[in-house]
Amino acid sequence: MVADWPYNTAQWKRLRLVQLARHPLCEGCEDEGRLTMASVVDHRVAIRMGGPAFDPRNFASLCLPCHSAKTARGPEAGAVRTRKPRKGCNADGTPLDRRHPWHAGKSLRADRSKTAAQSNIELVQVDDLDDGVSDLWV
Predict the structure, then answer these.
(1) Closest residue by Cα to residue 91 from 33, 35, 37
(2) What DSSP element (H or E) covers 13?
(3) Which residue of 24, 32, 72, 120 has the lowest C-beta tally within 10 Å?
């Protein structure tokens, strides 16, 4: 059951509408490559854990299934959050696991002390566009 404060205040109702207007898609679904409309504004850090009630930086737009899953994983449900990496990537090829080296901007080479030639990384020159510019691909 939803607690009364702050959800029964005019300020919260206004902020909720602004959050959903600015961020209409579910963040949980987006991370998995799905586009789903958000219907719930969640606090990233729960109010009871010291999170600010009215700070938009503490808000996350979620669909009801993602919000329910997040709540079920929380300490109030007696479950432990997993640190296991999320497998796979979204529709544009971005890894789902936020700890993946791609998100940190790490090099393709495991050993940065070696050059591309020493690492056996081949660059392929492709001029498949009619723009007069050759593109390099790994």
Answers:
(1) 33
(2) helix 10-22
(3) 120
Bond prior to 95 in cis (omega within 30° of 0): no
102 three-state secondary structure: helix
Q: What is the pLDDT of the chain when averaged over all its residues?
A: 76
- C-alpha to C-alpha distance for 138 and 123, rounded to whole angstroms: 5
Answer for the pair 91, 33: CB distance below 8 angstroms, yes or no.
yes
* The most confident of 3-7, 23-27, 81-85, by mean pLDDT: 23-27
- Determine the Cα–Cα distance for residues 87 and 83; give it in Å rounded to an integer: 12
Give CA–CA dist 18/82, Å, rounded. Answer: 31
Query: Structure pTM?
Result: 0.55
Cα torsion at 88, 84, 58, 5 (round to 10°)?
120
Domain boundaries, the chain: 10-77
Contact predicate 20/85, CB 8 Å: no
